[in-house]
Design a protein that fits this description.
single chain, alpha+beta, Lysozyme, ten-stranded antiparallel sheet, two-stranded antiparallel ribbon, 10 helices, 14 strands, 22% strand
Length: 334
């Protein structure tokens, strides 16, 4: 009888423990789903703050962030309500969502999926990006306000990254949070600029090229490959890399199930990138000066680094938006 009671108590506590674990799992799953990126693929084309106006060419203040979005679904970042929908000459078609004391405006939309006053949940498609209003091409403009005052959208975007990383870690996945993920696009550039200039001095690769490829390939440190494997340049694992027993992970890219190099740190990724570009495949890059980022990017593209026909232009957009060419000259002067 005593033995039966002991077994019963043991089973009871095991059951309670399992229920507790399931409860915790449910909590972290719910928390993970309580936030969402506004786009499936996040690639900044114009940051928050001072910039050169694409229409006038004069210095102006950019009140939000522009993302590359070629007629793609746009998602609610949090639970909330549609505060306003409308259209004007500057913003084109827009949707404004309210999330407590914050409002998030999506502009230049081609379609809207929601009506004013409608409740939304995080991850719910609310619109399709486009090029309406004062726009040079299809993209998503995101403006964030807190208590009616415009703030840097990176405050909310970084919060989303933090929450999701925290949940992944709690659910037993790899802790996805990294130093790069907590940075704004400007902070990301500033953080890695010094090493990029050192690479220019040692290998001749323009710092602007290193930084723009790094930012583009890793979506400013937020791509899955950068988070899980510290691969900031999309470098695939060679046969020798694999035979040497070096770490790699499998992802879908040009083809399904491709193997990509993994590194211990972002800095290790940058060093390997520099050595890759030092190979004979990219010999023609040396025909260009370390201040000729266009020539370098064109030669890198012709060397087979990327298949995207717009690759050079996209890297150059980042260079111009963040004035990365200044680092090329700084590296020559120091």
């Amino acid at each position: 009888m005593i033995r039966f009671f002991t077994v019963f108590v043991s089973l009871f506590f095991c059951l309670m423990q399992l229920q507790s674990q399931e409860s915790k799992k449910g909590y972290w799953l719910a928390r993970y789903l309580s936030v969402s990126h506004p786009l499936k693929h996040m690639s900044v084309t114009s940051g928050y703050g001072s910039r050169k106006d694409p229409f006038t060419g004069e210095k102006s203040t950019h009140s939000g962030i522009d993302f590359r979005a070629d007629y793609e679904d746009v998602y609610a970042m949090f639970d909330g309500v549609v505060e306003c929908i409308g259209s004007d000459k500057r913003s084109g078609n827009y949707v404004i969502l309210r999330h407590g004391s914050y409002t998030v405006s999506y502009c230049h939309l081609s379609k809207r999926h929601v009506d004013e006053g409608e409740e939304v949940v995080a991850g719910m498609p609310v619109a399709v990006s486009g090029s309406t209003g004062r726009s040079t091409g299809a993209h998503l403009h995101l403006t964030v306000k807190k208590d009616g005052k415009v703030i840097n959208p990176n405050i909310l975007l970084n919060y989303i990254e933090h929450v999701r990383s925290e949940c992944i870690a709690a659910l037993g996945g790899k802790p996805a949070i990294s130093e790069a993920m907590t940075m704004s696009s400007t902070q990301f550039i500033e953080h890695y600029a010094t090493l990029a200039m050192e690479i220019q001095k040692e290998y001749g690769i323009p710092a602007s090229v290193t930084l723009s490829q790094m930012a583009h390939e890793s979506r400013f440190g937020r791509s899955e490959l950068a988070r899980s494997g510290n691969n900031y340049f999309g470098i695939k694992a060679s046969r020798k890399w694999i035979l040497d027993g070096r770490p790699y992970s499998v992802h879908d890219d040009d083809r399904k199930g491709e193997k990509f190099c993994n590194y211990g740190t972002a800095e290790e990724s940058m060093q390997h990138y520099a050595k890759v570009l030092s190979g004979s495949r990219y010999d023609k890059c040396r025909n260009y000066a370390p201040t000729d980022y266009h020539g370098w990017l064109t030669a890198i593209k012709k060397g087979g680094y990327a298949t995207d026909p717009k690759y050079v232009g996209r890297c150059e957009q980042i260079i111009k938006a963040h004035k990365l060419y200044l680092y090329d000259h700084m590296a020559l002067e120091t």
